[in-house]
Amino acid sequence: MTESTRRRLLAVAVGVVSTAGAGCLDESSVERDESSGDDTDAADGDDSSPLADAVTADATVDYPAFVDRDVRVTDDERGIEYSDSGPVFVLAVQFEGADATADELRVSRDLDSDVSTAYIAPVVDSDGVTYHVFANESFIALADWTLVELVDNTPADERRASFDELQAGVFHLETSADADGLVIVDGGRDALETDAATVVGIHRLDADTVTESAPQVAFEIERLDDGSTVEITHTSGDHLEGDAVVVDVDGDRLENPFGVETVTAGDTATIEDVPAGAELAVRYDDGETATVMTTTTLE
User: Fold this and answer.
1) Strands of 290-297's sheet, edge to edge?
2) Residues 182, 44: one domain?
3) Domain termination site, one of 189, 207, 225
4) Domain residues for 263?
5) Three-state DSSP state, 41
6) Residue pLDDT, tens place only, 130-166
7) Tally of structural domains, the chain
8) Distance of CA 278 to the CA centre of its chain
9) Residues 86-98 pLDDT 10s
Protein backbone atom coordinates (compact mmCIF):
# COMPACT_ATOMS: atom_id res chain seq x y z
CA MET A 1 0.00 0.00 0.00
CA THR A 2 1.39 3.39 -0.99
CA GLU A 3 1.58 6.22 1.51
CA SER A 4 -1.13 8.07 -0.38
CA THR A 5 -3.36 5.00 -0.28
CA ARG A 6 -2.79 4.69 3.46
CA ARG A 7 -3.68 8.36 3.91
CA ARG A 8 -6.90 7.87 1.99
CA LEU A 9 -7.73 4.77 3.99
CA LEU A 10 -7.21 6.62 7.26
CA ALA A 11 -9.15 9.62 5.95
CA VAL A 12 -12.10 7.36 5.34
CA ALA A 13 -12.04 6.05 8.90
CA VAL A 14 -13.81 7.72 11.79
CA GLY A 15 -15.77 5.08 13.66
CA VAL A 16 -15.39 1.32 13.66
CA VAL A 17 -17.60 -1.58 14.48
CA SER A 18 -16.52 -5.08 15.39
CA THR A 19 -18.60 -8.19 15.03
CA ALA A 20 -17.21 -11.43 16.37
CA GLY A 21 -15.61 -14.06 14.22
CA ALA A 22 -16.14 -15.19 10.67
CA GLY A 23 -18.02 -18.40 10.05
CA CYS A 24 -21.59 -19.43 10.80
CA LEU A 25 -23.94 -16.70 11.87
CA ASP A 26 -25.00 -17.39 15.43
CA GLU A 27 -25.24 -15.67 18.80
CA SER A 28 -21.44 -15.59 19.12
CA SER A 29 -20.85 -14.00 15.70
CA VAL A 30 -23.26 -11.07 16.07
CA GLU A 31 -23.62 -9.31 19.39
CA ARG A 32 -27.30 -8.48 19.82
CA ASP A 33 -29.05 -6.13 22.17
CA GLU A 34 -30.90 -8.61 24.40
CA SER A 35 -32.97 -5.84 25.92
CA SER A 36 -34.56 -5.11 22.56
CA GLY A 37 -36.42 -8.44 22.50
CA ASP A 38 -38.75 -7.98 19.55
CA ASP A 39 -36.72 -5.38 17.65
CA THR A 40 -36.96 -7.30 14.40
CA ASP A 41 -40.73 -7.40 14.55
CA ALA A 42 -40.85 -3.75 15.51
CA ALA A 43 -38.64 -2.77 12.58
CA ASP A 44 -40.78 -4.79 10.18
CA GLY A 45 -44.17 -3.67 11.38
CA ASP A 46 -44.13 -0.72 13.76
CA ASP A 47 -44.44 2.50 11.76
CA SER A 48 -43.36 4.47 14.83
CA SER A 49 -39.82 3.14 14.46
CA PRO A 50 -37.53 5.55 12.59
CA LEU A 51 -36.20 2.53 10.72
CA ALA A 52 -39.57 0.96 9.96
CA ASP A 53 -39.19 1.81 6.27
CA ALA A 54 -35.41 2.00 6.09
CA VAL A 55 -35.06 -1.31 4.22
CA THR A 56 -37.47 -2.58 1.59
CA ALA A 57 -38.85 -6.11 1.42
CA ASP A 58 -36.25 -6.98 -1.23
CA ALA A 59 -33.38 -5.96 1.12
CA THR A 60 -32.62 -2.56 -0.40
CA VAL A 61 -31.64 0.28 1.94
CA ASP A 62 -34.18 3.00 1.16
CA TYR A 63 -31.74 5.86 1.63
CA PRO A 64 -32.10 8.78 1.48
CA ALA A 65 -35.89 8.26 1.53
CA PHE A 66 -35.97 7.71 5.30
CA VAL A 67 -34.09 10.98 5.92
CA ASP A 68 -36.19 14.11 6.40
CA ARG A 69 -33.89 16.31 4.31
CA ASP A 70 -32.87 16.74 0.68
CA VAL A 71 -29.97 14.34 0.13
CA ARG A 72 -28.33 13.32 -3.14
CA VAL A 73 -26.57 9.97 -3.63
CA THR A 74 -24.27 9.56 -6.64
CA ASP A 75 -24.98 6.86 -9.21
CA ASP A 76 -22.17 4.65 -7.92
CA GLU A 77 -23.51 5.07 -4.34
CA ARG A 78 -20.16 6.24 -2.94
CA GLY A 79 -20.92 9.95 -2.70
CA ILE A 80 -23.58 11.54 -0.46
CA GLU A 81 -24.34 15.26 -0.44
CA TYR A 82 -26.77 17.24 1.69
CA SER A 83 -28.06 19.85 -0.74
CA ASP A 84 -28.75 22.65 1.76
CA SER A 85 -25.04 23.57 2.06
CA GLY A 86 -24.61 20.66 4.41
CA PRO A 87 -21.79 18.15 4.62
CA VAL A 88 -20.54 15.85 1.89
CA PHE A 89 -19.69 12.21 2.59
CA VAL A 90 -17.53 9.78 0.62
CA LEU A 91 -17.71 6.00 1.11
CA ALA A 92 -14.81 3.65 0.40
CA VAL A 93 -14.10 -0.06 0.54
CA GLN A 94 -10.89 -2.08 0.52
CA PHE A 95 -10.30 -5.82 0.63
CA GLU A 96 -6.99 -7.07 2.03
CA GLY A 97 -5.31 -3.75 1.32
CA ALA A 98 -6.52 -3.20 -2.24
CA ASP A 99 -9.61 -1.69 -3.78
CA ALA A 100 -12.29 -4.35 -3.49
CA THR A 101 -13.72 -5.94 -6.61
CA ALA A 102 -17.45 -6.40 -7.00
CA ASP A 103 -17.21 -10.10 -6.08
CA GLU A 104 -15.11 -9.58 -2.95
CA LEU A 105 -16.72 -6.80 -0.92
CA ARG A 106 -19.33 -4.24 -1.94
CA VAL A 107 -20.62 -0.86 -0.82
CA SER A 108 -24.21 -0.84 -2.02
CA ARG A 109 -27.74 -0.19 -0.86
CA ASP A 110 -28.73 -3.50 -2.49
CA LEU A 111 -28.05 -6.05 0.26
CA ASP A 112 -29.71 -8.95 -1.56
CA SER A 113 -26.43 -10.53 -2.65
CA ASP A 114 -24.21 -13.50 -1.88
CA VAL A 115 -21.29 -11.04 -1.91
CA SER A 116 -20.44 -9.38 1.41
CA THR A 117 -22.23 -6.03 1.20
CA ALA A 118 -22.59 -3.06 3.53
CA TYR A 119 -23.85 0.48 3.28
CA ILE A 120 -23.28 3.39 5.68
CA ALA A 121 -26.07 5.98 5.69
CA PRO A 122 -25.36 9.26 7.51
CA VAL A 123 -28.26 11.18 9.03
CA VAL A 124 -27.47 14.81 9.87
CA ASP A 125 -29.51 16.86 12.31
CA SER A 126 -28.98 19.68 14.80
CA ASP A 127 -27.32 17.29 17.25
CA GLY A 128 -24.69 16.07 14.79
CA VAL A 129 -24.38 12.96 12.62
CA THR A 130 -25.80 9.50 13.24
CA TYR A 131 -24.26 6.79 11.07
CA HIS A 132 -26.54 3.87 10.19
CA VAL A 133 -24.60 0.80 9.09
CA PHE A 134 -26.56 -1.81 7.15
CA ALA A 135 -25.05 -5.18 6.21
CA ASN A 136 -26.07 -8.52 4.79
CA GLU A 137 -25.38 -11.89 6.36
CA SER A 138 -22.32 -12.54 4.20
CA PHE A 139 -20.74 -9.32 5.47
CA ILE A 140 -21.43 -10.21 9.10
CA ALA A 141 -19.80 -13.61 8.65
CA LEU A 142 -16.80 -12.34 6.67
CA ALA A 143 -14.52 -10.97 9.37
CA ASP A 144 -13.87 -9.95 12.95
CA TRP A 145 -15.16 -6.40 12.51
CA THR A 146 -14.29 -3.48 14.76
CA LEU A 147 -15.66 0.06 14.76
CA VAL A 148 -12.95 2.72 14.91
CA GLU A 149 -13.61 6.44 15.20
CA LEU A 150 -11.15 8.91 13.70
CA VAL A 151 -10.67 12.43 14.92
CA ASP A 152 -8.63 14.70 12.65
CA ASN A 153 -7.96 11.59 10.53
CA THR A 154 -6.33 9.87 13.50
CA PRO A 155 -7.71 6.58 14.88
CA ALA A 156 -9.35 7.31 18.21
CA ASP A 157 -12.03 5.29 19.97
CA GLU A 158 -12.65 1.69 18.95
CA ARG A 159 -15.23 -0.81 20.11
CA ARG A 160 -16.84 -4.05 19.16
CA ALA A 161 -19.70 -3.86 16.69
CA SER A 162 -23.17 -4.65 17.91
CA PHE A 163 -25.43 -5.53 14.99
CA ASP A 164 -29.14 -6.21 15.40
CA GLU A 165 -31.08 -8.18 12.81
CA LEU A 166 -33.40 -5.61 11.26
CA GLN A 167 -35.20 -8.12 9.07
CA ALA A 168 -34.37 -11.52 7.61
CA GLY A 169 -30.82 -11.35 6.26
CA VAL A 170 -30.36 -7.63 7.00
CA PHE A 171 -28.38 -6.36 9.99
CA HIS A 172 -28.02 -2.85 11.38
CA LEU A 173 -26.14 -0.79 13.90
CA GLU A 174 -26.00 2.92 14.50
CA THR A 175 -23.54 5.21 16.17
CA SER A 176 -23.27 8.94 16.77
CA ALA A 177 -19.76 10.25 16.53
CA ASP A 178 -18.22 13.70 16.91
CA ALA A 179 -15.65 12.79 14.30
CA ASP A 180 -14.74 13.05 10.61
CA GLY A 181 -16.22 9.66 9.76
CA LEU A 182 -15.95 6.02 10.69
CA VAL A 183 -14.55 2.73 9.47
CA ILE A 184 -15.56 -0.86 9.99
CA VAL A 185 -12.33 -2.79 9.84
CA ASP A 186 -11.25 -6.39 10.27
CA GLY A 187 -8.80 -6.41 13.17
CA GLY A 188 -9.32 -3.02 14.77
CA ARG A 189 -7.30 0.17 14.64
CA ASP A 190 -3.96 -1.63 14.36
CA ALA A 191 -5.11 -3.17 11.09
CA LEU A 192 -5.47 0.31 9.56
CA GLU A 193 -1.69 0.66 9.54
CA THR A 194 -1.06 -2.63 7.74
CA ASP A 195 -0.85 -3.39 4.05
CA ALA A 196 -3.73 -5.88 4.19
CA ALA A 197 -6.66 -4.09 5.83
CA THR A 198 -10.21 -5.07 4.93
CA VAL A 199 -12.41 -2.06 5.59
CA VAL A 200 -15.62 -0.25 4.74
CA GLY A 201 -15.68 3.39 5.75
CA ILE A 202 -17.24 6.80 5.36
CA HIS A 203 -15.46 10.15 5.50
CA ARG A 204 -17.15 13.48 6.15
CA LEU A 205 -16.07 16.60 4.31
CA ASP A 206 -17.32 20.14 4.72
CA ALA A 207 -19.16 21.20 1.59
CA ASP A 208 -16.96 24.27 1.15
CA THR A 209 -13.83 22.08 1.34
CA VAL A 210 -15.06 20.03 -1.58
CA THR A 211 -16.16 22.91 -3.75
CA GLU A 212 -13.24 25.23 -3.08
CA SER A 213 -10.30 22.83 -3.29
CA ALA A 214 -11.54 20.19 -5.71
CA PRO A 215 -9.34 20.07 -8.84
CA GLN A 216 -10.82 21.51 -12.02
CA VAL A 217 -10.11 19.12 -14.90
CA ALA A 218 -11.66 18.31 -18.27
CA PHE A 219 -11.52 14.73 -19.57
CA GLU A 220 -12.26 13.17 -22.93
CA ILE A 221 -13.59 9.61 -22.68
CA GLU A 222 -13.57 7.55 -25.87
CA ARG A 223 -14.37 3.91 -26.65
CA LEU A 224 -11.95 2.43 -29.18
CA ASP A 225 -12.88 0.50 -32.30
CA ASP A 226 -12.33 -2.89 -30.63
CA GLY A 227 -15.52 -2.22 -28.66
CA SER A 228 -14.12 -3.09 -25.23
CA THR A 229 -11.29 -0.61 -24.62
CA VAL A 230 -11.86 2.90 -23.28
CA GLU A 231 -9.34 5.76 -23.24
CA ILE A 232 -9.59 8.60 -20.72
CA THR A 233 -7.57 11.68 -21.64
CA HIS A 234 -6.81 14.67 -19.40
CA THR A 235 -7.47 17.49 -21.88
CA SER A 236 -7.12 20.59 -19.69
CA GLY A 237 -7.09 21.88 -16.15
CA ASP A 238 -5.22 21.21 -12.93
CA HIS A 239 -2.36 18.77 -12.48
CA LEU A 240 -3.37 15.71 -10.44
CA GLU A 241 -1.45 13.48 -8.05
CA GLY A 242 -1.35 10.20 -9.96
CA ASP A 243 -2.12 7.79 -7.13
CA ALA A 244 -5.01 9.99 -5.97
CA VAL A 245 -6.87 9.30 -9.21
CA VAL A 246 -9.27 6.34 -9.27
CA VAL A 247 -11.42 5.07 -12.12
CA ASP A 248 -14.56 3.21 -11.09
CA VAL A 249 -16.31 0.99 -13.66
CA ASP A 250 -19.54 -0.56 -12.35
CA GLY A 251 -18.04 -0.75 -8.85
CA ASP A 252 -14.65 -2.12 -9.93
CA ARG A 253 -11.94 0.38 -9.02
CA LEU A 254 -8.56 0.96 -10.64
CA GLU A 255 -6.01 3.05 -8.77
CA ASN A 256 -3.63 5.36 -10.64
CA PRO A 257 -4.99 4.35 -14.05
CA PHE A 258 -2.68 6.84 -15.78
CA GLY A 259 0.37 5.11 -14.31
CA VAL A 260 2.27 8.33 -13.68
CA GLU A 261 3.27 10.36 -10.64
CA THR A 262 1.57 13.52 -11.91
CA VAL A 263 -1.30 13.58 -14.40
CA THR A 264 -1.21 16.55 -16.76
CA ALA A 265 -2.98 17.62 -19.94
CA GLY A 266 -2.39 15.08 -22.71
CA ASP A 267 -1.97 12.07 -20.41
CA THR A 268 -4.19 9.10 -21.28
CA ALA A 269 -5.39 6.11 -19.26
CA THR A 270 -6.41 2.93 -21.08
CA ILE A 271 -9.11 0.77 -19.51
CA GLU A 272 -9.76 -2.65 -21.03
CA ASP A 273 -12.75 -5.00 -20.99
CA VAL A 274 -15.34 -2.28 -20.41
CA PRO A 275 -18.83 -3.60 -21.27
CA ALA A 276 -21.51 -1.60 -23.05
CA GLY A 277 -23.75 0.25 -20.63
CA ALA A 278 -21.11 0.41 -17.91
CA GLU A 279 -21.12 3.37 -15.49
CA LEU A 280 -17.68 4.99 -15.39
CA ALA A 281 -16.54 7.55 -12.81
CA VAL A 282 -13.21 9.33 -12.47
CA ARG A 283 -12.50 10.24 -8.85
CA TYR A 284 -9.86 12.23 -7.01
CA ASP A 285 -9.05 11.60 -3.35
CA ASP A 286 -5.72 12.71 -1.89
CA GLY A 287 -6.77 12.33 1.75
CA GLU A 288 -7.76 15.98 2.05
CA THR A 289 -9.95 16.53 -1.00
CA ALA A 290 -12.39 13.92 -2.31
CA THR A 291 -14.51 14.52 -5.38
CA VAL A 292 -16.02 12.87 -8.44
CA MET A 293 -14.48 14.67 -11.42
CA THR A 294 -16.63 13.14 -14.13
CA THR A 295 -19.11 10.33 -14.74
CA THR A 296 -20.57 8.79 -17.87
CA THR A 297 -22.50 5.80 -19.15
CA LEU A 298 -20.53 4.03 -21.85
CA GLU A 299 -22.40 2.93 -24.95
Assistant:
1) 252-255, 245-249, 279-285, 290-297
2) yes
3) 207
4) 214-297
5) helix
6) 899 999 999 999 998 999 887 766 777 889 888 999 9
7) 2
8) 19
9) 678 888 888 887 7
